Amino acid sequence: MASLKEGAAAPKFDLESDDGRHVALADYAGKWLVLYFYPRDNTPGCTREAQDFTAAAARLKKLGAEIAGISKDSVKSHCGFKEKIGISFALLSDPDLKAHRAYGAWGTKTMYGRKVEGVIRSTFLVSPAGKVERAWGGVKVDGHVEKVIAALEGARADGQRGNAAQKTKR
Question: The whole model's pTM is what?
């Protein structure tokens, strides 16, 4: 489970993107953001996850969401990975692990029965107000993107119900 609690303010970040510019949390203000942390470019699970998010990008955009992937890999590695499999969203480089640590996506995990320190595959759904709407830690790739879409649809519906309730109170 991700250590960042739902409802908390999303930690700020400012990271270099695969297109050479810096991308910050503030760049997504007023939009939904699917922010996912993954271990490494060009590995089987990370490739499937990126392909799944790319396949769902149009659906997510229609729901008002942007996607950004973060790993500790270099911008150069991200560029090759993005081009190789046709990723349609920003990949951000976090070589010093500041964003990973802030979001709880770095820590002790068990791999092949041994405790190791590393990236904890995690996804965060950040609301237009900059709050963590949903957090998933220790993500299993298969079926995960559908869970993210369902959570986004639910959060948007809850927000619309909340807006309607406020209007009827007036």
Answer: 0.90
